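Supplementary Note 3. Input sequence used for the single-chain structure prediction.
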Amino acid sequence: MIAIIDYGMGNLMSVERALKSQGFEGVITRDPEVVLKAEKVILPGVGAFPDAMDDLKDTGMVEAVGEVVGKGIALMGICLGMQLMLELGLETRECKGLGIFRGKVDRLPAGIKVPHMGWNSLDIKRNCSILEGIDNGSYMYFVHSYYAVDVEDEVVCATSSYGVDIPAVIADGNIFGVQFHPEKSGNRGLVIYKNFGEMKA
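The predicted structure, written as discrete structure tokens, is reproduced below.
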């Protein structure tokens, strides 16, 4: 079972359907106990960083995600979910993140149209299990106005260019973050879910 954390933001049903299409059971939940019993965990999301963190704190999910990481359970953050994995968010107000990866989340630079919305290609920097079967230059679907900065180079698996180099895929062991929406990215996006679902603990 793959737990899909519900913190009141994002199209959770789309993630659940994408997993099901690849033969995996996804369970949408706000219960930390369900998350801790899952084989794998997805942290999806669309919305504002501080609001998301407030909800994760209120439901006990911050502690649950920390336990997931400590136990070595595979974890994937999607879009805002990836951003929440960093140390600090600067959207509307400074807000502490989950701190799984070093770095912060800041607004895309002035002069760039926001949000960054639509198809953009991946520049794959290093081998990464979540990108198995994804060709360099493959297009994924992005929707975001903020992006990860000051991320350690060794965890960046792929970037996407939009005036600046945006970390599009980050990974450390079996913990992953993707800035794009795999569930909106056609067949290539479904490969991401397949790779995640098949991953061994």
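The helical segments are 12-21, 32-37, 49-58, 61-71, 80-84, 186-198. The radius of gyration is 15 Å.
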